[in-house]
Structures are given as structure tokens and as C-alpha cells.
Amino acid sequence: MVRDSLRYGHAVGRVRVRETRLLSRSHFERLLDAATFSDQLRILSDTPYGGHFDGVSSIEGLQAAMDRVRLQLHDDLLGRSGLPEPITRFFALLDGYQEARNGTAENPAEWAADIALYKEIVATAEASGCASLRELAALLADVANLKVLVRSKARGEAGSWDPEMFVAGGAITRERLLALHRLPAEEVAAQLAALDLLKGIDPQQILDPARFDVVADVVVASRMRESSALVAAGAGPVITYVVLQRIEMIVVRTLLAGVMAGVSRDLLRTRFREIFR
Amino acid sequence: MMDFVWQMSGVEWALLGAVSAAIGGGIGSSIGIAAVSGAATGVVSEDSSKFGRLLPLAAMPGTQGIYGFITALLVFIFIGLFEGDPALTATEGIRVFLSCLPVAFVCLVSGIYQGVTAIGSVGMVARRDEEAGKALIFPALVETYAVFSLILSVLMLTIVTG
Question: Looking at the domain assignment, is residue A277 inside a domain?
Fold first, then answer.
């Protein structure tokens, strides 16, 4: 405890202030209700995102601006808070993954290429000796496996899969995932909804890959929040903040891009129901 | 080593006690301040307006070092170190040494843990300025036991040096 306090004290102090600057539910509501992209930028002007989207007029420009925000977070907080190297490396790997692929792989061939990276992420967490990082890696591995499973079922695939198609390191075993994959989609959703990880989630949401992506992010955020809620100092609060910030960026990007592209508000609201709840 | 210990004079035992109190308190305070200062500097680097509210929290674990210093000073005064060459039997010296142990151990541990507790308080101040008063209370509770140990050491010193 004392060693963690000394090692992570500075980063925890920074994170405690930054937590107060995370967007609230009302910010998300206002972003969703905003009539135009300019209105959204006005809402974001008094938040840490203010100024980052000046001159942006296309989805590509928005993505580039959001990448800059993410890199700034990485350089500023993770790079200048004296955090141990495995933690910065872990998030750098995730950043690399996110840059290479926005979203989850749509087919098994793409997914196979991602597995090597997930292996590295899990191995980095294991080698770090940091319980919070290991917990996050296990959660991400579970979520990644479930996303692949859900996508496969949404495409109507059935039958047996290669066990190597699932990332190791999660709490849900490959055998369980393979057994789930052999079941019909509705039964898979029902069984997933009964998992401790997804308890309380509507099975219909689980079967919709786009909605499940949001649910999965919310699950990761809530789990990390729960485990670091009573921790005053240590890696937990820092890692949880970075996770929350990254999820916030995904939601902000989607809301901005959605309004820019003229996506219906109802569709966006449905997609982010878990966040607005 | 054991021979050396058994051959120590009363004054040497008393000085060992004084040194233990000063070292224990000093180490506890140093680690405690380092722990809470790390978090405080993190907060200030993001929001410099909180400096004034965090300073008392960062300084709080420093009291254990002061208690250790006071105890060491009292030993010097009680055994008459400033008045020339003090004469103390080995038994009297060991009593003085034992009198210093409460401060030496309790201040070492409480200084460290007060720092750890204060990190949580720094988090409270970071989130809500108005909680600064309440935030001081929790680390202050840890201080209680350092104060008890000082009182105990002073009482024991008073009694054994009569």
C-alpha cells in the first residue's frame, strides 16, 4: 500500500482533478439534442474538448481531431506522471490497435490478425505485476471474445470454431465460448445475459453488435469503477480514469459523427441507452 | 555484537533511545510526507488554486518527526547531557531507552499511514474544495496515536529520570 502510494501518488492526484472534468450525462444529452455540429461544438467549448475541433468539417477531420485528443491524453497523463513502463505500454498497445482498426473485426480473418495484439496486451498486463492492469486485460479479453461471438451469431454462423479464434486471458474459458458458439443466437443471448459480467443487460441488446459494443464499454467502465471505488491510491484509480476517458472519447466521437452524418437521434439514443440510463 | 550491547553504559543506552525516537519519527514523517506530497503535486499540477488547501494535508505527517525530535531533546535534558558528563547506570539508561520506544515505533508507523490516509483526503479536496475541512479530520485521527505515544514517552521519561 505504501509503495503504491509513493509510486502512483502523483498520477492519482492528477486523475482526481481530471475526474471532475469528465463529461456528465447532461453533456451527452445536450450533445444528442443539439441540432447541428456547430451547436455540439458550442456545448463542448467549456469542456476539455473545447478548441480541438475548430475547422473540422468532415468525419475524417473529426477522427483526426479525436486521435489528437487521445494522443494528448497519452503523452500528458500517461507519459508525464511517472507511471511504470508496463502501464504506458499497455495503453500504447491499445492506442495502436484503435488506430489500426476503429471498431471490432468484422470477419474471422481480420480477427485472427488482432489476436496476436491481444496476446501482447494480456502478456504486458501479466508481466506488469499490477492487479488492476491484469483485471482490465482480462475484462478486455472477455469483451473482445464476446464481441466476436455476437458478431458471428449476428451473421448467422453456427457450428464449431477453432479454439484459437478466442483470446486467452479472460475469465470466460475458450471451452465455454466454443460451447456458446454452437447454440442458436437467441439462446446465446440468454446465456450471455445470465453471465455475471452482463447481468441485467437485455438479451436483445446483446444480439445487436452495434449496441453490444456500447454495452461492452459500459460493462468495462462499471467493473473498473467498482474495483477502484474504495482505493485511495494505487494503479486502480489511474487505470480506471484512462478507461473512462477513452470510452468518453468514443461516445463523443460517435455523437459528433452521428449528427454530422445526419443519423437519426432516436438511433443514437437507442445505441447509447446504457450510457444515458 | 552481544558483548558490545551488554557493555554499553547508561548514557549510551539513553542516547540510543533518543536516536531511535528521532530516527523512527523522522523516517515515518519523511515517507508520509513523500506519499501525500506526490498526490498533492499531482492535483496542483492540474489545478494550482488548490495549493493552499492541500498544504496542511501535506504537512500533517511532519508532526511525527517533531515528536521524535522533542523526545530526543527531552532525553538530553533529563539525563543532563547539556550540563556536563551525565552519570547513568546501565539499568537507568535502559529505562530511558525503553521510554523512547513508544515514540520510535508509533511515530514511524503512524507517520507513514497518516500520509497514506491523507492521499484519500487529497482526492476529496481535488473533487470538492468545500470538503477541505472534513478532509483534514481523517488523517488527524491517525495523529491521535502519535500524540498518545509522545505523552507516554514523556511520562515514562519523567518517571524513570525522577
Answer: no
